[in-house]
Design goal:
Elements: H1 4-7, H2 12-18, H3 26-38, H4 45-56, H5 62-65, E1 74-77, E2 83-86, H6 98-104, E3 110-111, H7 115-127, H8 135-138, H9 152-166
Antiparallel strand pairs: 1-2, 1-3
Helix pairs in contact: 3-4, 4-7
């Protein structure tokens, strides 16, 4: 499914009013992705990724995308380097920070998306309840100092500044 408007920019009225063709909505895209994932032979990961990005741009919610939960739409890289399409219930992590991605490269199963693609697809990932699979959620970073004292006010100020710089 491709939006007709992409190819026929000035003919929207003709298609929608005269031919009575529906404008694509979120439900249509979700159904198209579900059918694409179930097709044989398996579709290319890039086609699925394009559909995921379109759905993500439309503000998905759990109710609108729950039909995708058991669909094999996520291309995961295994520890041996092989790639496989899998669903949301499979065991994999989402690399959302480059330093964590480097630290775990080849050691765990990860979603085969760049960090930019993860950010673009974030609305769908969150709607499907995959926040807990993000490496930033799974990894706890700790720092220790000898003979140090905790100053909660300085810690809070430092975190606020670090957050602003990081973003």
């Amino acid at each position: 499914m491709h939006p007709i408007k992409t190819f026929y920019v000035n003919l929207e009225d003709f298609f929608c009013r005269i031919l009575n063709i529906q404008k694509p909505n979120l439900d249509m895209h979700v159904q198209a992705l579900k059918e694409l994932a179930a097709s044989r032979p398996p579709p290319s990961a890039s086609k699925i990724k394009q559909k995921i990005m379109v759905i993500s741009s439309m503000g998905p919610t759990w109710d609108t995308v729950k039909a995708l939960r058991r669909s094999n739409i996520f291309n995961v890289t295994k520890t041996n380097g092989q790639k496989a399409l899998t669903d949301t219930t499979s065991d994999f992590a989402i690399v959302d920070r480059s330093e964590l991605g480097s630290a775990f490269d080849g050691k765990i199963r990860v979603l085969d998306y760049t960090i930019e693609e993860v950010r673009t697809c974030r609305p769908l990932l969150l709607a499907l309840g995959l926040k807990s699979k993000h490496l930033s959620e799974l990894v706890e970073e700790t720092t220790t100092v000898r003979d140090g004292q905790v100053n909660n006010q300085l810690t809070r100020a430092f975190r606020q500044k670090a957050y602003a710089i990081f973003r």
